């Protein structure tokens, strides 16, 4: 259980998607998200599809509980489009998925590509209507003269059908690419952020949104920073944070003014002048920011590490976790192959005690908070989402190690042997249990505590 | 489709088709069918409607929103089709399901229909069927049903027994404390309405504490609605309780940390002022209002600025002038120079309305300088708002005081680079014509009106033609003949065919107002002469114009003058010209 903070032995549970070598571009997973009770797990891919997995009811009941998920619904959320005014192709890739809190039997989620946000309803139907007046049972039309009495149709049980229907389309509000969407705790509004602006929407109103942050300079040549991620506070409806490419995070209070150009707090760690290099600015860019479930902390991911901030302390992070420090000496080649611009996401465990984020070579890292600093860094793990793991179901995952120096110990892998094409960018943690979902290119791996 | 009303009453077939279409794949057909639900019910009779149709409808509530919306609406008027008031409760179950769907519009409609249906319940039936439904919804698993429940209390409460009333108050109280903000919002929204039917003693003991709690909710969106309810709640209480029960909340919310809540207070200020009574309005609200006008957030200032006139008008007459001059006017002076143009334009839209309240002397001394400042404001909207409200000042001090500043402002707006601004000022021209008088208008503004006719934006040219019509209506045909028509006629010989077309468009509207004589004598010859224009668009517009002006022509000229021209156009090589010529011929003949 995640609640007691005890040791978790991570085991392979399932892998979704083909394990064959040739991977089509469209199948690359671009986001992963559990819903609020963890019953459903949604992924979006480069082909604009959303796949929803449902927790197997049997796996939940057996002791110990298993975290097995089956496909529940698949639908095409976005299609490729072309902006004729700007002569730009709009990719169908799903950038983000966010679940709404449940409001009735159906489930609702927001999905977005670069420009357009859609609200989807996913609902079940297990009834079918029978009894026609103008047709025979077989479906043939009935002779009108033979219709002598009126029949009211009746409803019969039928096979369960899951249907996804688009309910709202929020378009034409973003000039730049949308990188984040986040629902407000008031459950009626959400924000969407692109490179330079953040807009506030009402879930029921598609034809207007309010601009709450605009960092576009009057002259685009003076542009020095862009918004990289934005998120609402989990309980305080008036607070939201956004991170920037300069490594800062701003907290804004919507109560203060209609336009939140002036932040309430600015979280920024002073730069170490000794560590300064050509790449400093690039690697300090924040690729993801997530508030803890309690709302007291937030975590930011930059290229090489994770930082945990206390919302009440702006001057420096309260915890820092290097993710792949061994890459610091490789920045030059990572710059050349563009990997340095990869946007790694990060996530909190349900109890806020653990953090997870991705790396290269199929590796992802889990940090036990408070475990760090204790010499051997007992509380941190490097695991691998790979076919090898899939070949050994229910077996504990082996902890992986990367050799920081040329002298490689047994079990260690050399930095030069890392496969930089196997990136783990998107991960998700079940809201209450020790179940994690890790997207590795076109595969979704589900791991869980030993069972 | 055979679903149309074929009129063959004896045949069941159309009804059968209608019923089958309730489950058609095509949403439009389902929608049509639902909209004719009463026809189906009538054919089935009350018995079968109750036992078959209503259960079927209850079970199939998973359709598209628009279908559900139509269904929710239909069911509200279904009482007679299920057998009258006695059976009204039959309608509750489908409406109950509809009240739980996620679409707010559908839920709202279902609640509206439930409210309508409740009126047909006897007190016994209310307690037997309706109240349990309200309680089921109020205790529902999903917030959608609980939110819907909030709107049903006020309709059943007055007609049930005391113990049930107590239960209902208890239910409402728990909705006010619900976990989800949506339900608390719905409760805050309906609190005022519910309070109106609850006995005053219980309003004080039960509802006011709820209202106070909601007004301090952690969610801005809930506090905002509670602020909105302030006025409604205040209106129910006797004046002596106001200070203790309502004013603390008003004061707190007017200083709320969230600008949206303060905005709502500003927005509802006049209602609140009327509810609390003259005394409190003078002693307390004036100060709060003053603070709102000085708010740090422009949206709040703008909302408050919009209320200045009404607030001042409703002040206690004995102190009105003193309060305005000492408390409000200084704020207005600041707002005139506000940094935010929305604030300035909100103020500009009402500031003229203060003149009648403060009287001639104060207007000249204090307000006139402000009007003049706003007339020179850099933002066109501000100037426009001043100009569009001239009539209030006209009555008090006469427009002459303003003319000197007015004219440059009008001219500048008329030549603004944004066509929407030009459009707006054109729309005010007829009004200005009335206020400024014909002589002044001829001298300074007729030129402008004519220049718009050759504007490069079509919308402006179109508005300019309509403007001409209104001016002629105001100043009469004789004025038109001397001042307008010569200039318009000149356009018929312009190089640019668009100008020649505009000429025709002018004729279309002018012939209506100029009268038979001028139309036949002056306008017609030029139109006829343009039938030989080398641009086809002009030629077919000639045909259209001739058709339009025919009713205003002397009937004697139609055969000898108009007909031959149309006949000629009817054999034009251009198909469009031919088409419109034949249309015109048919139109004139008919």
UniProtKB/TrEMBL annotation, chain A:
Please indicate if the UniProt record lists Transmembrane as a keyword. Answer: no
Keyword Glycoprotein attached: no
Which keywords belong to this entry?
Repeat, WD repeat
**Superkingdom in the source lineage:** Eukaryota
Question: Which family does the record assign?
Answer: Belongs to the phosphatase 2A regulatory subunit B family.
User: How is this protein named in the record?
Assistant: Serine/threonine-protein phosphatase 2A 55 kDa regulatory subunit B
Automatic annotation (TrEMBL), chain B:
MF terms (GO), sorted A to Z: protein phosphatase regulator activity
Q: InterPro entries under this entry? A: ARM-like (IPR011989), ARM-type_fold (IPR016024), HEAT (IPR000357), HEAT_type_2 (IPR021133), PP2A/SF3B1-like_HEAT (IPR054573), PP2A_Regulatory_Subunit_A (IPR051023)
Sequence ranges of the HEAT repeats: 14-52, 168-206, 207-245, 246-284, 285-322, 328-366, 367-405, 406-444, 523-561, 562-590
Residues spanning the membrane: none
Keywords noted in UniProt: Repeat
The protein's matches in Pfam families, at most eight in alphabetical order, are given as: HEAT, PPP2R1A-like_HEAT
Query: A single GO CC term, please?
Result: cytosol
Residue stretches making up the Phosphatase PP2A regulatory subunit A/Splicing factor 3B subunit 1-like HEAT repeat domain: 279-359
Q: Which domain of life is it from?
A: Eukaryota
Q: Which SUPFAM superfamilies match?
A: ARM repeat
Q: Which family does it belong to?
A: Belongs to the phosphatase 2A regulatory subunit A family.
Its protein name is Protein phosphatase PP2A regulatory subunit A
């Amino acid at each position: 259980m995640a609640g007691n903070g005890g040791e978790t032995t991570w085991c392979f549970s399932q892998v979704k998607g083909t394990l064959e070598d040739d991977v089509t571009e469209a199948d690359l997973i671009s986001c992963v998200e559990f819903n609020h009770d963890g019953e459903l797990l949604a992924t979006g891919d480069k082909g604009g599809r959303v796949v929803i997995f449902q927790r197997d009811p049997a796996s939940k009941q057996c002791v110990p509980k298993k975290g097995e998920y089956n496909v529940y619904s698949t639908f095409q959320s976005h299609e490729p489009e072309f902006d004729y005014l700007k002569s730009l192709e709009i990719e169908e890739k799903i950038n983000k998925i966010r679940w709404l809190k449940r409001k009735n039997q159906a489930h609702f989620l927001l999905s977005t590509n670069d420009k357009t946000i859609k609200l989807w309803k996913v609902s079940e139907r297990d009834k079918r209507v029978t009894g026609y007046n103008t047709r025979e049972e077989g479906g043939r039309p009935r002779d009108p003269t033979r219709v002598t009495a009126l029949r009211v149709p009746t409803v019969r049980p039928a096979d369960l059908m899951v249907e996804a229907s688009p309910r709202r389309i929020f378009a034409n509000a973003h000039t730049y690419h949308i990188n984040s969407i986040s629902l407000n705790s008031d459950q009626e509004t959400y924000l969407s952020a692109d490179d330079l602006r953040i807009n506030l929407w009402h879930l029921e109103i598609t034809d207007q949104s309010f601009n709450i942050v605009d960092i576009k300079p009057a002259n685009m040549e003076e542009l020095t920073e862009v918004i990289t991620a934005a998120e609402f506070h989990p309980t305080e409806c008036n607070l939201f944070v956004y991170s920037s490419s300069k490594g800062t995070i701003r907290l804004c209070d919507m109560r203060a003014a209609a336009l939140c150009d002036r932040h309430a707090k600015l979280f920024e760690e002073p730069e170490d002048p000794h560590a300064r290099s050509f790449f400093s600015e690039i690697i300090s860019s924040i690729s993801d920011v997530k508030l803890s479930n309690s709302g007291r902390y937030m975590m930011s991911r930059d290229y090489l590490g994770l930082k945990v901030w206390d919302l009440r302390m702006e001057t420096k992070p309260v915890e820092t976790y290097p993710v792949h420090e061994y890459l610091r000496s490789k920045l030059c080649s990572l710059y050349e192959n563009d990997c340095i611009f990869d946007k790694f996401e990060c996530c909190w465990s349900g109890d806020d005690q653990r953090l997870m984020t991705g790396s290269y070579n199929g590796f992802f890292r889990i940090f036990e908070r408070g475990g760090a600093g204790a010499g051997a860094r007992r509380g941190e793990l490097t695991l691998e989402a790979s076919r090898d793991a899939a070949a050994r179901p229910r077996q504990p995952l082996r902890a992986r190690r990367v050799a920081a120096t040329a002298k490689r110990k047994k079990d260690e892998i050399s930095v030069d042997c890392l496969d930089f094409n196997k990136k783990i960018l998107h991960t998700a943690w079940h809201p209450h249990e020790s179940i994690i979902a890790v997207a590795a290119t076109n595969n979704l791996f589900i791991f869980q505590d030993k069972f | 489709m055979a679903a149309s009303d074929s009129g063959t009453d004896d045949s069941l077939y159309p009804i059968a088709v209608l019923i089958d279409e309730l489950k058609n794949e095509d949403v439009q057909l389902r929608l049509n069918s639902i909209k004719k639900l009463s026809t189906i019910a009538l054919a089935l009779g009350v018995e079968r409607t109750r036992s078959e149709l209503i259960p079927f409808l209850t079970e199939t509530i998973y359709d598209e929103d628009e279908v559900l919306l139509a269904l929710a609406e239909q069911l509200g008027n279904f009482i007679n089709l299920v057998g009258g008031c006695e059976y009204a409760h039959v309608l509750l179950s489908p409406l109950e399901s509809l009240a739980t769907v996620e679409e707010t519009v559908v839920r709202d409609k279902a609640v509206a229909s439930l409210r309508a249906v409740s009126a047909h319940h006897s007190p016994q039936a209310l307690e037997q069927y309706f109240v349990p439904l309200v309680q089921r919804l109020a205790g529902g698993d999903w917030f959608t049903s609980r939110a819907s429940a909030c709107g049903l209390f006020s309709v059943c409460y007055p007609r049930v027994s005391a113990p049930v009333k107590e239960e209902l108050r208890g239910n409402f109280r728990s909705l006010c404390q619900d976990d989800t903000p949506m339900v608390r919002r719905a409760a805050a929204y309906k609190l005022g309405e519910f309070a109106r039917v609850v006995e005053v003693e219980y309003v004080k003991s039960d509802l006011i504490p709820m209202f106070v709690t909601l007004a301090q909710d952690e969610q801005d969106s809930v506090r905002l609605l509670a602020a909105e309810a302030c006025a409604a709640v205040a209106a129910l209480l006797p004046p002596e309780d106001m200070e203790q029960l309502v004013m603390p909340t008003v004061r707190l919310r007017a200083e709320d940390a969230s600008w949206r809540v303060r905005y709502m207070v500003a927005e509802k200020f006049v209602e609140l002022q009327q509810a609390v009574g003259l005394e409190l309005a003078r002693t307390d609200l004036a100060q709060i209002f003053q603070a709102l006008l000085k708010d740090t957030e422009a949206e709040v200032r703008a909302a408050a600025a919009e209320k200045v006139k009404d607030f001042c008008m409703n002040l206690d007459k004995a102190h009105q002038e003193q309060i305005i001059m000492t408390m409000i006017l200084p704020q207005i002076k600041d707002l005139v120079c506000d940094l935010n143009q929305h604030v300035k334009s909100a103020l500009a839209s009402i500031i003229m309305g203060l003149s009648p309240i403060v009287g001639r002397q104060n207007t000249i001394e204090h307000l006139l300088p402000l009007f003049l400042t706003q007339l020179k404001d850099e933002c066109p909207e501000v100037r426009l708002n001043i100009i569009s409200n001239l009539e209030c000042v006209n009555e008090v001090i006469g427009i002459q005081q303003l003319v000197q500043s007015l004219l440059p402002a009008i001219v500048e707006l008329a030549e603004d680079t944004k066509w929407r601004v030009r459009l707006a000022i054109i729309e005010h021209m007829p009004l200005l014509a009335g206020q400024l008088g014909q002589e002044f208008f001829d001298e300074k503004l007729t030129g402008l009106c004519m220049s718009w006719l050759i504007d490069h934006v079509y919308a402006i040219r179109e508005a300019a033609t309509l403007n001409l019509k209104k001016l002629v209506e105001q100043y009469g045909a004789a004025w038109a003949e001397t001042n307008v028509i010569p200039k318009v006629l000149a356009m018929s010989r312009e190089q640019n065919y668009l100008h020649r077309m505009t000429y025709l468009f002018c004729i279309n509207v002018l012939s209506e107002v100029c009268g038979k004589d001028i139309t036949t004598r002056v306008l017609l010859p030029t139109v006829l002469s343009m039938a030989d224009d080398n641009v086809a668009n002009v030629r077919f517009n000639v045909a259209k114009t001739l058709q339009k002006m025919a009713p205003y022509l002397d009937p004697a000229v139609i055969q000898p003058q108009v007909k031959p021209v149309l006949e000629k156009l009817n054999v034009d090589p251009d198909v469009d010209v031919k088409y419109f010529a034949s249309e015109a011929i048919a139109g004139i003949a008919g």
